[in-house]
Design a protein that fits this description.
single chain; about 290 residues; globular
Amino acid sequence: MPDILCPVCRSVFVQSPARWRCANGHCFDVARQGYVNLLPVTQKHALHPGDTMAQTAARRAFLSAGYYAPLAQAVCRQVQAFSPRTVLDVGCGEGYYTGLVEETLPEAWVMGLDISKDAVRLAAGRYKNCRFLCATAAHLPFPDGSFDLIMSLFALTVPGEFARVLRPGGHLVQVLAGEDHLLELKSVIYPEVFRREKDTVPQLPGFALVSTRQISFPVTVEGQQIQHLLAMTPHYWRITKDGAARLAELTRLDDRVSAIMNVYRREAGCGFTFPGFSGTMQANTGR
């Protein structure tokens, strides 16, 4: 089990069932669901950062229905191939992928981390064999070289921090939305769909690309699950009143999931041996 660092002073926590305390007296309570909120005010970009409870509940309903099962299975097979002992899911949301990976690797120590307290609360309430933290990807609360594998699935990628907390030779499994991801949804909610070229295989400082593959499959979404799908995507924040009205009229949506799974290896001697954020951030959402 990796040590966990205080987000205020970066010293190691002494953990007890009720609270975690560091050598400098900073104390954080363990919530009833079992997670710990390690997101201080100084690391927040909003009063309530991350997904709202409504979005989190929508994602739980949609993913639990199995619409993205082919993608989840591909991720689990890829992670299993490396036989990691320690796994960190950064941007874990309500824990769907985190929980499935833990089932695949029952002997591994699996932790999910998300900036949304609502998402982490929901994750910790269901997936009791995993550990969950509310924290930011830009300031991961772990010592250097703590993990064998990191997952970043439709989430923020912070190469510097990821390289720092991965051991040399450890792996990053990244999933990004493809250029043709959920085109039918976009065609309903926007008056015109613009095809923009996306960097779906980015170069990440401190990492070497091992493999890349496209994962694509059709989905048929009906009823309230159409709204749940919308809430999982960045379009939830961009949709206009007219677009929302058109989507509300739909009873069935035939669409295609298109994702890119990139696997990177953390290069030895890359120099990321410091606490805190370094490098660029790359966001790619669309779960």
